[in-house]
Each structure stands twice: as structure tokens, then as C-alpha cells.
Amino acid sequence: MKILIIEDEPSLREVMQRALTEERYVVETASTYFEADAKLAGYSYDCILLDIMLPDGNGLRLLEHIKKQNKRDNVIIISARDSLEDKVFGLEQGADDYLPKPFHTAELKARIKSVLRRGKSGGNLTLTAGNVSLEPESSRVTVEGKELLLLKKEFDILLYFMQRPNHLVDKSILAEAVWGDHADQADNFHFVYAQMKNLRRKLTEAKASIEIKAIYGFGYKLILPETE
């Protein structure tokens, strides 16, 4: 799961980033309207934590911009401006939740899980493809009911593909999605190849009915069983 924190206060931004990284999210940050707009133009996120009061623009206008682009990113507004007008306007513009400052990181984590649960699978976060089931909240993967042990990045890669079955994924897009900021600017993608090789081997050994197939010159695609 990939999260973008748009927050100009360095100490709060750092606390949020550290807390969410501990939850195994891939976390990116932006401290200004301009920086956030640039990231949103190039990438998609599972959840955006959006501060209203930014030094170079209004976060509510950024929310309008996000929704006009028909992006499916979940948005939680985080702001010290806990006025009813701001809250109503933000929710009317498509925000999924509104969390006033100050807040505990435990509540922040709970809000994120709630919007992801609603947004991804209508109340059930468990993803299923073929005989493979994946639970993002518990980081658990099973094949035919038997647990499959994966390293963190292997799990993150599998989650990314199970959210996009039969979708061709470029290796640079995969690297940026799983490893975060600037991974797509790496000189080579050996780190992607190594993790992908191990994941594919483990799926084969576990007799998974799905396959992450390498498409030469392009990237990878999660292939479902013919019956799906």
C-alpha cells in the first residue's frame, strides 16, 4: 500500500512517516502544494493524507484538482482548521474522511485502514486470485489455505499485482510503487529482478495457480487461471 503525506510541518510529517512506515506502507511526502501537485501528476496512491493549510496553496483546491482528474486515490483531510464549513466542503469535494489536528497516530492508522477497506473491496480487504489469498492488514498470504511466508518486499510486490490482475506493469512503475521516491531513476533494476525471482519461485513451490509472468521488453503481468 502506498501513501502520500502532504504536510508542511516537518516534525508532524516525520512522525506520520515513521508511524506509517512501521505499518509496512510505502510512504512518500510533500511539504508544498507545488511538490504535491507534481507527485500526483506522475503517480497514483492508495491513500493521500492532505493538509488544508499549505504555504503556497490551499489543500482544498488540491483536492478539487485530484477529483477533476478522476483519480481513485483515497483522501483523508488532516488539518488544524476544524471548522464545519471546511469539513463539509472537503467531504462534498470527494474526501473520504476528515481528521482534525492534533491526533494520535493510532487513530490515523485506524482511519487509513478504514478508508482502504471501503475503497478497495467494499468492506473486505482480503484479496483473492486463483488459490491465493492475501490479507494486507495482517501481511498474511495463503495458498490453498496454507500460509506462504514472504519477505516484506515480496509481499508488497504480490499485493501490487493482485490489485491489478492481467495488467501489464512496467518494471520502473513497479519499482517506484514498491520502493518509493526516485526508485524509477535507478541505473538498473537488479533489486526488482532479485525480489521478483524469489517471489515467483515461492509461488511455484507452493503450487499457486497464479503466475507473475515476465513480458520481455515490457515488464510483468499477473496471469490468473483460465477459469477466472
What this model shows, in words?
This protein is α/β, with parallel strands linked by helices and 228 residues long. Helices cover 42% and strands 24% of the residues. A five-stranded parallel sheet has the order 2-1-3-6-7, with helices on both faces. The protein has a four-stranded antiparallel sheet with strand order 8-9-10-11, with helices on one face. Strands 12-14-13 form a three-stranded antiparallel sheet. A hairpin with a 2-residue loop joins strand 10 (140-143) and strand 11. Helix 6 (152-162) crosses helix 7 and helix 6 (152-162) crosses helix 8 (190-205). It is elongated and about 55 Å long. It starts with a strand and ends in a 5-residue tail after the last strand. The model has no long low-confidence stretch (mean pLDDT 85).
Task: Describe the strand arrangement of the main beta sheet, using strand numbers.
Answer: 2-1-3-6-7
Q: What oligomerization state is this entry in?
A: single chain
Q: Based on Cα principal axes, name the global outline.
A: elongated
Spans of at least 5 consecutive residues with low confidence: none
Termini Cα gap = 24 Å
How many strands in all? 14
Q: Beta fraction of the residues? A: 15-25%
Percent helix range: 40-55%
User: Number of helix segments?
Assistant: 8
Major sheet size, sense and barrel closure: 5 strands, parallel
Q: Helix and strand string, N-terminal first?
A: EHEHEEEHEHEHEEEEHEHHEE
